[in-house]
Design brief:
Layout (H helix, E strand, L loop, with lengths): L6 H19 L4 H43 L6 E4 L3 E4 L6 E16 L2 H4 L4 E17 L3 E8 L6 E9 L6 E9 L4 H4 L12 H5 L4 E10 L3 E8 L14 E14 L2 E13 L19 E3 L8 E4 L4 E15 L2 E14 L10 E12 L7 E2 L2 E2 L15 E12 L15 E14 L2 E13 L3 E2 L2 E2 L4 E12 L1
Antiparallel strand pairs: 1-2, 2-3, 3-4, 3-24, 4-5, 5-6, 6-7, 7-8, 8-9, 9-10, 10-11, 11-14, 12-13, 14-15, 15-16, 16-19, 17-18, 19-20, 20-21, 21-24, 22-23
Helix pairs in contact: 1-2
Amino acid sequence: MIRGLSAKGRNSLVGVGAIAVLVLGSPADAEDTRAIEAQLKALQAQISALQKEVEKAKAAAASAKASAEKSNSGDLDLDVKWRGAPEFSSADGKFKMKVRGRLQADYNAIDQDEAITGEPDVNAATIRRARLGVEGVVWGEVKYIVEVDFANDTASLRDAYVEYTGLAEDLGLRFGNFKTFNGLEHLESANYLTFLERAAFQEAWTLDRQIGAGTIYAKDHYTLSAGIFGPRVAEQENWLQDVKTGSARLTLAPINQEGKVIHAGASWRTRDGAEDLRGDPVPVNNQFFQYRARGADLRLADRFVSTPAIFDKDTFWGLEGLLIWKSFSVQGEYTQLRADSSPIFGINPDPTYDGWYVEVNWFLTGESQTYQKGVIGRPTVKNPVFQGGYGAWQLAGRYDVLDLTDKAVNIAACDLCGEQKTWLISLNWWLNNHTRFQFQYSESDIDGGLMNGANLDNGATIKGFGARAQVDW
């Protein structure tokens, strides 16, 4: 069969062959010869047309084959990669989008020393974080993140910002809801935290996300960031009357290599509360600041050290350090917070509170902490369980102190306000880069503390065990 010819073409070729046989096989007179020649010319014209049809068919087939090869080679304007979840990007890389999220399910068992504190023991589970969102890039110079937390049947907006990076190399201009620029552990993602919760001063000083604008200049060996902020998202309806915040952070990393890092940093934050909402000495709308933290550094524990909500301004200073040497790392932070009490209460002490921690971290299986541009990142598991390995095993210890005793005797309803000293030990099992189980034991010794019925929290020891199952993408 002759490919590319129609049925009409094939029949014409058969006719030509038959005529040729007749011409060659028998004599004919001149008239018959002229008739045959006329027929041959007509058939030659048909053959020429058929040849053009064959060429068109060949060209169409070649075009279809080229399109198929282009499609199979992935040379479309879409690229798909797997980074814990699908990441879609244009061929030129100017547009990207990735679904992001995490799920952390916790269990806490806490002995709250009821004989002293009056608080019952805790034995409960909770969804610590259940977040879902998207992140990406548009037109190559604008990054974005939007993420919502659905933990415990409530929805709260977490990171939600755009960042323009086209003004200069390594410079970002960020607008939206994001973390203030304070501290090493505060800026570290909860996906990579060594312990179940951050150090006690993080909760006490209310280091959190706020709506604002900031600039970040980040290089491999140093970073500089600063921003101005309004309220937290939950209080955004009071934008014109709510807390005003400024923050800044500087970091230096003279050594920044894989498995070898020396990092030092300092940060500052100042807050001024909502003066227009302070018409009554009864705290409403959270316009007065209060400092407190949970026992044993566990989410479901009660708070045994606390100040009253009587402060309208405060200033935070923090120092931070990190040393990574192969499988070992040591990190710590020291912070002070100067709190100005509101004259509304007729109390004039302006105390200075302290919070600090130091921790040691060791990967038993040879992995290392990772670090990039002033922030601790995701470890890389050498032998993931799904590939037949044993995962990564991480052992860590921490000593954590929060001191709220300065000038406490002059503050109403506060008996020293309290000092909490906590030691913790944690064992983490990373099954792969995105899945892990955490196990933690911790104890807090309480000195002083708020009045609690007929009892004082002074002298209590809060003991707790915590566990977490986590997956992120």
